[in-house]
Amino acid sequence: MNLKKLFLNHCKTKGLEINNNQITTIEAINEFYQKNFNFSFFANLFANKENIPGFYLQGGVGVGKTMILNFFYVNFNQPKYRLHFNEFMINFHDFIFQNKNNKKDNIIDKFVTKLKKKYKLLYFDEFQVTNIVDAMILGSLFKKIFNENIKVIFSSNIKINDLYKDGLQREQFIPFIKIMKKNCIEQTLTIKEDYRKSHNKNNDNYLYPLNEITSFKINKLFRKLTKNKIKEEKFLLIKGRKFSIKNYYEGVVRFNFNDLCNKNIGAEDYIKIADICKYVLIENLPNFNDNNSNQQQRFITLIDIIYEKKVNLIISSDSNLNKLTSANNLREPFKRTLSRLYELTSSSNN
Q1: What is the 8-class DSSP label of residue 205?
Q2: Is the pLDDT reported for residue 89 higher than 60?
């Protein structure tokens, strides 16, 4: 199977621009595949080279990283697992909780052994580390994953050396960076254009400013989406906590921004919400600054999960999407959020 030829045909069929930098990346991921699985999409050219179990694709927002790795993942015909990194770490912490009384076993060894029995390849899209608890665990966890020769592909806006930059106790995170550098091919995809912005110019589902006209449009959209649907109050039980969704209409939900991002909830809650929703409407999105950076961090996580779970999104905000501001320490990750908002709120995406 010729991966490069398949990719070119894929781009042609989908009407996608063919970019030389993306072709170079396709060739690199094909080489990674050949080194690790010895069953070439091309000829068997790289079988005798050193086995490196990780492939880390870094690049700016909207340059096609996810498209390329998704394409590779779809064409990978062995046991595989693609999930949001937050979800992966939640699964790990759940595993620790479920095995907390089993003190004889090394919990990381046990978790990775279970992974190895099921999968030959793991895929983490838009990999980042923001949680200090996760940061302290990742070195031991991924050392074991790589030692067990489980293959892992990552996409990220952040270079390996810059992961968890300026994070608390980052010196304890450095061993993980060394493990990643040793066990991953780091490929950079450089393209000036953000395809999400350029290809999604009609953001009909991002409504601003916050006034009577916007309120009328939001209400009209919501009535259309919930027509003939039954309203109920939905309760989600998350680690013993009860989360209430008051405006639940058979998969269509309506939230105020503060309901989702100004409370002590996080990735696990957002995953549970996304799992039962087809449409999420969020009202009163604010501008962000250093005074509401905690809310912004939750919003970044929320949008990552909505994007990953392919949930449709409608937003009302006080500001044009082009003019949303950010807390200083979140400017870089927020670029990804803005890029994804362009795609998620485009009428062509719904």
Answers
A1: T
A2: yes
